[in-house]
Amino acid sequence: MLLNELRDYNASLLQTSLFKDYCPNGVQVEGRAEVRRIATGVTASQQVLDEAIEWGADAILVHHGYFWRNEDATIVGIRKKRIAQLLRNDISLLAYHLPLDAHAELGNNAQLGKLLGLAEHGRFGEQNIAWLGALEQPQTLAQFTQQITDDLQRAPQVIGDGSKSISKVAWCSGGAQGYFEAAIAQGVDAYITGEISEQNFHLSNETGVAFISAGHHATERFGIQALGEHLSKRFGIGHRFFDQANPV
Ligand SMILES: [Zn+2]
After folding, report:
1. Residue 39 phi, psi dihedral angles, 5° rounding
2. What is the DSSP pairing of strand 130-140 with strand 118-124?
3. pLDDT at res. 205
4. Phi, psi (degrees; rounded to nearest 5) at 172
5. How many CB atoms lie within 10 A of CB 144?
6. Cα–Cα dist 131/121, whole Å
7. N or C: which end of the chain has fewer CB within 10 A?
8. In a 10 Å sphere around its CB, with 0-12 CB exposed, 13-18 middle and 19+ buried, how is residue 142 labelled?
9. pLDDT for the residue numbered 15
10. Ligand 1: centre distance to CA 221 (Å)
11. How much distance in Å is there from the Cα of 163 to the middle of ligand 1?
């Protein structure tokens, strides 16, 4: 397929124009016009670029691309190295940030909810990015923690009493610890996100709502893979996910 077709299809699928985001969504670095193989990754790190190029990707699709709003805009240091490599190899970089978190089926939150067996009951937060749902059967916080450990292959950091019963849950992948208070206002038993801040401990402790920090990378591995699989099936193009382990 053509890069322009891929760009337009993704823009419409993910409704990228509807989001106010911190980075450009869509083509961030333009490569060759024809795309036969797409690589996906959580972050456009040097390792993901190296492996995708070695594999023969024509385009790399990621959740965390480049050109973040508050970042230094100059192309020096690691930014120069990464962008020069893309340009030298004539490979495109496409990034989908908030639109990929939010998508109702392929998004990070949709995929995370499915993996953890959470039925969606609604949305909340800025741009309706965070999800509300419930476990099919209530579990203790200790049991739910074990389930998350198994499903994500990573032990979360959990604040709360392990014997507490968990039924209603809110979740938002990545660095969404700032939505904890909004999640508490929804009347949930637990909130799951990717990272934790100092004040989250006190908020959890004083409200009794459990806080589960399940890993920024660990909670955001699924949306971009689902997008890659979807595109591969729909357009008959090759797809491979490149996962660089990240403890955060
Ligand atoms: Zn993220």
Report:
1. -105, 145
2. antiparallel
3. 98
4. -155, 120
5. 28
6. 8
7. C
8. middle
9. 96
10. 10
11. 31
Do 92 and 26 touch, CB atoms closer than 8 A? no
CA of 175 to the centre of ligand 1 (A): 6
Instruction: Measure 176 CA to ligand 1 centroid, in angstroms.
Output: 9
Cα(29) to ligand 1 centroid in Å equals: 19
Ligand 1 centroid from CA 162, angstroms: 28
- Per DSSP, 185 falls in state H
Which of 190, 183, 215 minimizes the C-alpha distance to 139? 190
Please tell me the predicted confidence (pLDDT) of residue 140: 98
Query: pTM for the whole thing?
Result: 0.95
Q: What DSSP designation does 15 have?
A: T
| 153 C-alpha to ligand 1 centroid (Å) | 18
Residue numbers in the chain where pLDDT is lower than 50? none
CA distance 91 to 77: 20
Quick one: how many helices (H) and strands (E) in the chain? 10, 11
Helix (H) / strand (E) element for 173: namely none
DSSP 89-113: TT-EEEE--HHHHH-TTTSHHHHHH
Residue 26: the pLDDT is 98
* Tokens matching residue 199: 């004040």
CA of 50 to the centre of ligand 1 (A): 21
Amino acid 135: pLDDT: 96
pLDDT at residue 101, rounded to an integer? 95
